[in-house]
Amino acid sequence: MTENTNHMLLRVNNLVKHFPIRRGMLKTTIGAVRAVDGVSFHIRERETLGLVGESGCGKTTTGRCIMRAIEPTSGEVLYTSANGETVNIPELEKHDMKDLRREIQMIFQDPYSSLNPRMTLLQIVGEPLSVNKVARGTELEERVADLLRVVGLRPEYMRRYPHAFSGGQRQRIGIARALALNPRFIVADEPVSALDVSIQAQVLNLLQDLQQEFGLTYLFVAHDLSVVEHISDRVAVMYVGKLVEMASTENLYYHPLHPYTEALMSSVPKPDPRAVKRRIVLEGEVANPANPPSGCYFHPRCRYCIDLCKVEEPELLETEPQHWVKCHRAQELSLRGVAG
Amino acid sequence: MNQDQMLLEVRNLKTYFFLEEGTVHAIDGADFDIKRGEALGVVGESGCGKSVTGQSVLRIVPNPGEIVEGEIIYYRYSERSDGTEVQEAVNLTELHPRGDEIRAIRGGEISMVFQEPMTSLSPVHTIGQQIMEAIILHQEVDDDEARRRAIDMLRRVGMPQPEITVDNYPHQLSGGMRQRGMIAMALSCSPSLLIADEPTTALDVTTEAQILQLMRDLQQDLGMAIMFITHDLGVIAEMTKRVAVMYMGKVVEMADVDTLFYDPKHPYTRALLNSIPRLGQKKSERLESIKGVVPDPYNLPPGCPFHPRCASFMPGVCNVQDVPNYTVEEGHKVRCFLYSEYGE
């Protein structure tokens, strides 16, 4: 894969989101769930960064903090907008944020709960246009018809309600809504995980086509490693609120450097009865983000754990060019990727 | 135990749901069989009838669903005092769904693991109480012995500290632990058939790997047959020996797992296999998607239900006649006219 040398679109520095745990009558804070705990990464224009991890690892929270759908506790989210200006999203004033939201859109996981059942497609897809005073009346209808055509739905459906559509069609409606304001950057949070396999392929292909056509940049949040491999240029792996590895898709899948990534890859059931089954089954459970273990968060489940891992947390280092890993033993271990 | 002995035979099973909007043919003439100790996979997309198949076998089809036709023959094996095995056949469709006979089979000889361990366990009973209930119902033991067996079973499914977790409520356990509890409950009476309906779909991949490994080990130790219902072809490839592919209430293809993945015959099976992204596949390769959508269950197309989406559709044949089963080779059946005189 060729190195992407496009302009930087997004740079996230040390993003933190802690959810306080409150107890008792006075709701005193007795601790915090460290959902996102110092995450840094970047995305270039027209690139797809896949963000993977198990449930509760903070991948969705990361996506939402970037959009300020929830307020991050601390950290920088530097976004370079279409006019070349770089802004720090968490510090933006309300009206600046509103302008910026035209450029950054989101696609949600559940196509059933993310569409208002009392609104027609025209209202759902047209709402961003009318709220931002981009179009109204017949112009709005024409624009909505265009958008529906782009995502592969018939414009005649415009006056129908979401209940008349299947899961895959609803996800297309959600995509049309996200595209309404010609965004540059889309945070897609598990966009295909609620869909059946045959429909999943349609939506993945659509997302790839749209990226080509409109030059979109995606942050693709998902737990399905095969889907992420299929759509991403680079992939970041999260574990208990932290990034543990980030590299080009090929490097990450074929030459992982973090033991968690290795275990994750080998856990996926392969749709091939002749595949050699050399699975690494991780013992135990994902650490509790309210009370994480000492040292490296992964050490209680890691089969390569040494004494150092129990006391000292490793840093996320660029061990190989464009390949970041957070592991004390990254350079000495030889781990198995998807091919082996 | 003889591996070739039949355990369950399903013949022309039809389970319909009679709703105000119309009749849904959830299962519309399904045929398959399971041999003793065998792992059979049932794969299909949502709404294809795979879960209702499991429910029909156990006779727990929810209202307003009803088995309207067909047979589910369950073979019971028992050992006589002189060591010879006797076989007894029961047609499950003829039993009263609330009768004593099906209740003795359900949970005792055929048990089930459900998809969502949070909603399928009782929130107001401890894990131990729920396992003990099954044991006391099907085996003549007292409370103390049942509790001992429950703890034993929990240890066997890899529950940490079983003496303590036995008194835990489901909400105190993680998703993986709950699913282990479910499996312990299902296996507590050593069933001869376990119906596992999407047992790992709600779990994370690393937990899924643990549960799949556990189920494989237990199947070998206990020698039970498993009917593995899932939409995940990866799970099918790893866990089963033979596979039934379902589409709109019909078993469209049935073959051993290797043949199904390497020599699929039905256009739907082929399309399904091509539409999944696989690990290690290059990004530039485009996924082949199946065009169109699953048909409206109230309004099934005539003939083969897959014909509106099929790449090999033969007008005048596929959209007119019902498709019978064609045997392409020993143990490989397919419901498609391509393998009849029309396809030549």
Considering DSSP H and I runs of 4 or more, what fraction of the residues of chain A is helical?
Answer: 25-40%
- Give average pLDDT of chain B, whole number: 90
% residues in beta strands of chain B: 25-35%
Structural class of chain B: alpha/beta
The largest beta-sheet of chain A arranges its strands as: 6-7-8-3-9-10-12-11
Tally of helical segments of chain B: 11
Elements of chain A, N to C (H/E):
EEEHEEHEHHHEHEHEEHHHEE
**How many helix segments of chain A?**
10
What is the number of E strands of chain B?
A: 12
Strand portion of chain A: 15-25%
Summing up helix and strand content along with how strands pair, one would put the structural category of chain A as alpha/beta
Give the helix level of chain B as a range of percent: 25-40%
- Write down the overall geometry of chain A: globular
Rounded mean pLDDT of chain A is 91
Summary, kept brief:
With 340 residues, chain A is an alpha/beta fold. Chain A is built from ten helices and twelve strands.
Care to describe what's here?
The complex is a heterodimer of chains A (340) and B (344). Chain A is of the alpha/beta class. Chain A is 29% helix and 24% strand. Chain A has ten helices and twelve strands. Chain A has helices spanning 59-67, 94-101, 121-131, 137-150, 167-179, 197-214, 225-231, 249-254, 259-267, 307-311; strands at 8-23, 28-44, 48-52, 74-80, 86-88, 104-107, 185-189, 217-222, 234-239, 242-248, 317-320, 323-325. In chain A, the strands form two sheets. Chain A has an eight-stranded mixed beta sheet with strand order 6-7-8-3-9-10-12-11, sandwiched between helices. In chain A, strands 2-1-4-5 form a four-stranded antiparallel beta sheet. In chain A, α3 (121-131) packs parallel to α5 (167-179). The longest helix of chain A is centred in the middle third of the chain and has 18 residues, at 197-214. Chain A is globular and about 70 Å long. Chain A starts with 7 loop residues before the first strand and ends in a 15-residue tail after the last strand. The model of chain A has no long low-confidence stretch (mean pLDDT 91). In chain B, β9 (242-247) and β10 (250-256) form a beta hairpin. Chain B starts with 5 loop residues before the first strand and ends in a 10-residue tail after the last strand. Helix content of chain B is 30%, strand content 26%. The model of chain B has no long low-confidence stretch (mean pLDDT 90). With 344 residues, chain B is an alpha/beta fold. At the A-B interface, α6, α7, α8 and α9 of A face α8, α9, α10 and α11 of B.
